[in-house]
Amino acid sequence: MSEWQQISGSVTAPKGFKATGIAAGLKPSKTADLALIFSETEAIAAGVFTTSEVRAACVDYCRQRLQAKASARAVLINAGQANAATGELGWQDALKSAELVAAQLNVPPESILLASTGVIGKRIRMDAMESGIPTLVASLSDEGGETAAKAIITTDLVPKTIALETIIDGRPVRIGGMAKGSGMIHPNMATMLGFITCDGMVATHLWQEMLSRAVNQSFNQITVDGDTSTNDTVIALANGQSRTAAIMEMGKEAQIIEGMLTEVCQYLAKAIARDGEGATCLVEVQVTGATDNESARRIARTIAGSSLVKSAIFGRDPNWGRIAAAAGRAGVSFHQEDLRIKLGDFLMMDNGQPLDYDRSSASHYLKKAAEGAYLKEDTVLISVCIGNGSGTGQAWGCDLSYDYVKINADYTT
């Protein structure tokens, strides 16, 4: 963290980026539902997408665009309709959306990337899209990051943004990000959209590699309900407007940029988990002692995704047995006599044996986290050690409340 600092702003904090969000009439609520991120110059583009076999048209569109040309000028994002499982007509809607915004921006359609969020099986309301795009483009602003972030949310309670700055070669280099996500959140990837901008210049292959690693340590380590979706997208643009030297291979400067990128992704990932549908607290699982990092991350994901663990946390029940059981079924080999479990500062198991602890105080710890929603005190920390290996991993989730069922029972009605 000493290599960079958090600054105000979002995706427009880096030089050469503008953004906006408007109410185009795509959502019945008449709230903001159409967003645009625009780079004043062609930007190197990287993307990571859902692993689902059922994919939205925008996902296949972006994959094709990035395979043909790993650069872009803009990202158009709509809320209200996922445009997933919509067949050929949905694909044509995606193509037309790109053409419409490209014409208004006076750039080639190939320089436009797309993302959608909303109800699966619903095509984009193209009449609203077509009438809204001129207003959208006209409202682009270098201070429009927050309005863009508000325009992409669905069941989210709050928009999610961050910006960081570092100094390279005496010049400021910034990375900004925004994301949406609240339900259908689970690794590979979650139902979430993430957009990252950077004014540094990074080689195309290196920027993609950096993003993939950052996603594996962030968005692929969060879970709310065990469901993944059709539209999951993370797009990162780097336009070089900081005027620093191009980063062509791994080295000190590349490590700083990747560290910032990972920090942005982790911040947004935790914000998504914290905002889980019906959630009252953020759950962070830290695993150490594994033979490798991937094994540690796998155990952390399993614990964070356990419905029994999540339910116990909501019930303020410090039930370490559920944590132990989840660790044991993660598919990672370890000796149970090496297992060590802590809930906050409460050591509950060591050397595979249960320990006496103050149950009432541990329950109060869980209650205090719920009362500290959106504050630093809102995090329930679960620490698990499985041996003496060097592998470490983290995962983030939330508790599972009654409201989760209420929200999703009424989602399309």
From TrEMBL:
Entries under CDD domains matching the protein: OAT
Gene Ontology BP annotations: L-arginine biosynthetic process; ornithine biosynthetic process
GO function terms (MF aspect): L-glutamate N-acetyltransferase activity; L-glutamate N-acetyltransferase activity, acting on acetyl-L-ornithine as donor
Active site per UniProt = T191
Q: Which domain of life is it from?
A: Bacteria
Enzyme type, top EC level: transferase
Site positions for Involved in the stabilization of negative charge on the oxyanion by the formation of the oxyanion hole: T117, G118
| Site-annotated residues for Cleavage | A190, T191
Q: Which Gene3D superfamilies match?
A: ArgJ beta chain, C-terminal domain (3.10.20.340), L-amino peptidase D-ALA esterase/amidase (3.60.70.12)
InterPro entries named in the record: Arg_biosynth_ArgJ, ArgJ-like_dom_sf, ArgJ_beta_C
EC numbers, comma separated = 2.3.1.35, 2.3.1.1
Write the record's keywords in alphabetical order, separated by commas: Acyltransferase, Amino-acid biosynthesis, Arginine biosynthesis, Autocatalytic cleavage, Cytoplasm, Multifunctional enzyme, Transferase
Give the reaction(s) catalysed: N(2)-acetyl-L-ornithine + L-glutamate = N-acetyl-L-glutamate + L-ornithine; L-glutamate + acetyl-CoA = N-acetyl-L-glutamate + CoA + H(+)
Query: Which Pfam families does the record cross-reference, listed alphabetically?
Result: ArgJ (PF01960)
Binding of substrate occurs at T154, K180, T191, E277, N408, T413
Which compartments is it annotated to reside in? Cytoplasm
* Pathway noted in the entry: Amino-acid biosynthesis; L-arginine biosynthesis; N(2)-acetyl-L-ornithine from L-glutamate: step 1/4; Amino-acid biosynthesis; L-arginine biosynthesis; L-ornithine and N-acetyl-L-glutamate from L-glutamate and N(2)-acetyl-L-ornithine (cyclic): step 1/1
Give the CC-aspect GO terms.
cytoplasm
Task performed by this protein? Catalyzes two activities which are involved in the cyclic version of arginine biosynthesis: the synthesis of N-acetylglutamate from glutamate and acetyl-CoA as the acetyl donor, and of ornithine by transacetylation between N(2)-acetylornithine and glutamate.
User: NCBIfam families, alphabetically?
Assistant: ArgJ, PRK05388.1
PANTHER family recorded: ARGININE BIOSYNTHESIS BIFUNCTIONAL PROTEIN ARGJ (PTHR23100), ARGININE BIOSYNTHESIS BIFUNCTIONAL PROTEIN ARGJ, MITOCHONDRIAL (PTHR23100:SF0)
Family to which this protein belongs: Belongs to the ArgJ family.
Cite the record's note on assembly.
Heterotetramer of two alpha and two beta chains.
Q: What is this protein called?
A: Arginine biosynthesis bifunctional protein ArgJ
What is the species of this protein?
A: Gloeothece citriformis (strain PCC 7424) (Cyanothece sp. (strain PCC 7424))
